[in-house]
Amino acid sequence: MESEMKCNLSEMWSSKMPKGLDLEISHHPMTMRRVANLIIAMERLKAGTSESVLSTEFRDENLLNIMMENMVEERVMFECFSNPPSQFRRTCQHQCSVTDSQQRHLVRDLNSMELNAVTLQAGSENHKVHLTMSTYLPPLPSTEAKARPVALCIKDTNIYLSCHMDGDMPTLNLETVEDKSSLQRISSDSDLVRFLFYTQVSGLNVTTFMSASFPDWYISTAEEDNKPVDMCTETDNRYRTFNIRSKTPLTECRLAPRGHERRS
């Protein structure tokens, strides 16, 4: 296996080069194969051999002896990613639309800055809200081993869904975030956790959204049509599951590699 090398080849051979010849090596990183072939080429050059120094490729019978006589420090590079135990880290983003278990779409009320659950008629689907869903790695150890936190933003805006206390009840809000990069990493004790919801997938693209700030409180819709989306407990008659429609399945986004944020 070829490995990255850490060595100063110019210094290794400069003093041995024939008079009038300079040595300049610009290829980086060097691998064991390239170092071996370069050593052979330099030894042939010093010996004045007529064979082309450009055609070495491990054919020299003295390769082992040459390699034994030239010390090369080898360094193998490993790139590791870890998530600080007290942070949510964003790993993936994709576009999606969401409907509740009664097949009602989310529609934004521009006057009240609320989301309503609305049964749309044919030809009126252009009113539905499309979301950008950002998926996060949770802090470790996670109390929600089977769930994955997400942030929900109205597509092409800086408006996010958030949950915070209003009086004695958690409520769902639409909130403007001036700097989206502030949500790249979220400390578990930060007020920004209000933008996160734990998804719990129970079937093909069917999920619930539980507030990360207020466990056991879920995004919900009313029984009546064209009513605001809000928060409720699992035993409330407003409790709903949601269907997520996306070109990227939620399960695929959930499995995004650590350290690599996927963008649609």
TrEMBL record:
One of its GO terms (molecular function) is interleukin-1 receptor binding. It comes from Seriola lalandi dorsalis. The keyword Cytoplasm applies. One of its GO terms (biological process) is positive regulation of gene expression. GO terms for cellular component: cytosol; extracellular space; lysosome. Its main location: cytoplasm. Pfam families: IL1 (PF00340). Belongs to the IL-1 family. InterPro entries: IL-1_CS, IL-1_fam, IL1/FGF. It is found in: Cytoplasm, Cytosol; Lysosome; Secreted, Extracellular exosome. This is Interleukin-1. SMART domains: IL1. Keywords: Cytokine, Cytoplasm, Inflammatory response, Lysosome, Mitogen, Pyrogen, Secreted.
